[in-house]
Amino acid sequence: MKSLYNGEFFGRTNETVRFDGLTITDTEYTHPYVDWHYHENAYFTFLLQGNMTEGNKKETYDCQAGTLLYHHWEDAHYNIKPDIFTRGFHLEVTENWFEKFQMSKDSIEGSFNLKNPALKLLMYKIFKEAKLNDLSFELSVHELLLNIFSELSGKVQNSDKKPGWVKKIDEILHEHFTEKLSLTDLSKTIDIHPVHLSRDFQKHFQCNLGDYIRKLKINKSLTLINSHRSLAEVALECGFADQSHFIRSFRENMGITPLQYKNLLKK
Asked: How many domains does the chain have?
């Protein structure tokens, strides 16, 4: 089985940035099939454009643009890519980085398809920082990555302690976030009291219901911005009331406008 070393990925890597135990790569995937392999370091794959299939020892993921995967070091997997342009943003984390920030590289094992919109927005911000590459770039990336690992560690440790309604409402929100939702209807669907839902949602999702839904909408918009659609069409497809509401929410979550983000994708 092939082992890939620091900064190595199958395809054409257009940009590589290394600093303080991290390696960031922006890669176009060119292989229709990549056989079982593993990487020497833990890393995140963030699919910016296109789609692919990834399989590991536990499960198979259908990865569309906006998919965020975490891979433990030396965790074997394979990839299948259709005949379309597919681009991935990778953040590779060496053992030295974990030691520097007094974290165990084995605290999170295996591979995960990370669907939490808050984690995805943090990775989008890392991508944004990598493309801006200003004087605060390295500090910002370390801070954002530590937030991701903090959130991810808590999720893994507490996954068996969450009540059943947490998974159920997360599935409902991911499927229906573009629709008009009400607290009473959601409460009836998952069979808990509205007060219970509004009180305990933040405990399990680290934000309130409205913020979580807005994050889902923004994540969806980030996969559509580089398409032929206008901003008004993207806003409508993602469930925003209008284009101005979309732009305002986008700036609040990403720190830049949709047009500025679209220009970053071209770098």
From this structure: 2
| 24 lies in the same domain as 151 | yes
Distance CA 40, CA 13 (A): 18
Average pLDDT of the residues in 238-249: 95
Domain residues for 212?
164-265
d(CA 165, CA 74): 34
**Res 1: pLDDT:** 78
Domain stops at, among 140, 158, 176: 158
The answer to whether residues 190 and 211 belong to one domain is: yes
Closest CA to 12 of 25, 28, 26: 28
Instruction: Give me the DSSP letters along 178-215.
Output: TS---HHHHHHHHTS-HHHHHHHHHHHHSS-HHHHHHH
The answer to whether residues 53 and 80 touch, using CB atoms and an 8 Å cutoff, is yes
**Contact present, 13 and 27 (Cβ < 8 Å):** yes
- Are 31 and 60 found together in one domain? yes
CATH number of 216's domain: 1.10.10.60
For the chain, give the mean pLDDT: 91
Q: What is the pLDDT of residues 65-111, one digit of tens each?
A: 999 999 988 889 999 999 999 999 999 999 999 999 988 888 788 88
pLDDT of residue 12: 95
Place of tokens 């084995």: 106
